[in-house]
Each structure stands twice: as structure tokens, then as C-alpha cells.
Automatic annotation (TrEMBL):
<dbReference type="InterPro" id="IPR014710">
    <property type="entry name" value="RmlC-like_jellyroll"/>
</dbReference>
<dbReference type="Pfam" id="PF05995">
    <property type="entry name" value="CDO_I"/>
</dbReference>
<keyword id="KW-0560">Oxidoreductase</keyword>
<dbReference type="InterPro" id="IPR011051">
    <property type="entry name" value="RmlC_Cupin_sf"/>
</dbReference>
<protein>
    <submittedName>
        <fullName>Cysteine dioxygenase family protein</fullName>
    </submittedName>
</protein>
<keyword id="KW-0479">Metal-binding</keyword>
<dbReference type="InterPro" id="IPR010300">
    <property type="entry name" value="CDO_1"/>
</dbReference>
<keyword id="KW-0223">Dioxygenase</keyword>
<comment type="similarity">
    <text>Belongs to the cysteine dioxygenase family.</text>
</comment>
<keyword id="KW-0408">Iron</keyword>
<dbReference type="GO" id="GO:0051213">
    <property type="term" value="F:dioxygenase activity"/>
</dbReference>
Length: 183
């Protein structure tokens, strides 16, 4: 993954950021904030043209993040992620809440639990299509995301922290065996 740190004015982003700011300023817990921000994204999800044509191309070396906004007080960040065919994250969890809206394509997500610390159990999966919005907050946020499709996927991610300051929303990557439930 690469993180393009240049933040430029984006048409249509101000309306979205204003809604996210109002949701975050309610100072609810992480689960509730993720739910409130998801409601904002459902109403104000921009199109893939929030990125330039060049940015929409992605990077053959790995999925690429473009930092679009960091709230001045560090309370949230907005990124667009471009996923070329076959690109996938490591299995990971997060330092804070996250809400994702799919701008183009389909983002496939697998969710896991780590019941004993020595293995993972896959507890669900979803194909998040264009226009869908999902959100979560720790604990219970272990997942892996990929683009298994032939077309490039673009998703918008809102994280409850300043990712430019901490470098990533990832708290931990999991390199553990995956076992079936009940084993």
C-alpha cells in the first residue's frame, strides 16, 4: 500500500466533511460514531471523480490510498483507496473506528475473530458493491479486504484519527492459521 500524502481541494468533499464533522462532534462512543458517520456517507457519498483520472488508475504494486482530508483537530481523516484486480490487504484490525463507502466496483471483505490468540476463525464475508456503506469499531474489527474483480475498485474510508500523523489505521496484522468454526 502507498499513501499519497498530498491533500488538495476536491469538488464535493466539503459537504461530506461537514456532515462527518457534525457526527464526530457529537462525541458518542466509537460504535455509535461509526453508525452516525455511516449515515452521513449513505447520504453524501461522492462519485469516483473525487479522484483525478490519474489517481483512479491505481498502482500495480499494491492498493493505493489518497489522503483527501484531515480534520484540523485530528479527530478524523478521509481517504480514497484504489484497488486494482487481485490486490488484497493483510488480515488486520484498526486503531479506531472506520466507515467505508464503495465509489466504484466491488470490495470483498472477510471478517475474523481471534478467540484464543493462536488462530483466527472466519466469521463472515461480504461483497460490498458500488454505493454500499459499511462501518465498524474495535474490538471485533479483524478483517481482510480485496478486489477479486476485473475492474478497478475505488472506496472512500473515514477513520477516527489523523492517519497522516500515525501513518496507518492498522493496529495489528495477523499472521495466524485460519480454522473453521467449531475446531
Amino acid at each position: 500500500m502507498t499513501l499519497n500524502g498530498s491533500v488538495i481541494a476536491r469538488p464535493g468533499l466539503e459537504h461530506l466533511v461537514g456532515g462527518v464533522r457534525a457526527a464526530v462532534d457529537r462525541h458518542a462512543g466509537w460504535q455509535r460514531t461509526a453508525s452516525l458517520v455511516a449515515g452521513v456517507l449513505e447520504e453524501r457519498l461522492p462519485g469516483p471523480d473525487i479522484l483525478t483520472v490519474e489517481e483512479q488508475t491505481g498502482d500495480p504494486a499494491g492498493y493505493q490510498s489518497h489522503l483527501l482530508h484531515v480534520e484540523p483537530d485530528g479527530s478524523f481523516s478521509v481517504l480514497a483507496v484504489v484497488w486494482r484486480t487481485g490486490q488484497v490487504t493483510a488480515i488486520h484490525d484498526h486503531v479506531t473506528w472506520c466507515v467505508v463507502g464503495v465509489l466504484r466496483g466491488v470490495e470483498h471483505e472477510e471478517r475474523f475473530e481471534c478467540p484464543t490468540g493462536d488462530h483466527l476463525v472466519r466469521v463472515g464475508e461480504s461483497a460490498n458493491a458500488e454505493g454500499s456503506v459499511t462501518g465498524f469499531a474495535p474490538p471485533g474489527d479483524i478483517h481482510r479486504v480485496c478486489n477479486p474483480n476485473q475492474l478497478t475498485t475505488i472506496s472512500l474510508h473515514v477513520y477516527g484519527t489523523d492517519v497522516s500523523r500515525i501513518g496507518s489505521s492498522v493496529r495489528r496484522e495477523y499472521d495466524l492459521p485460519i480454522r473453521s468454526a467449531g475446531r
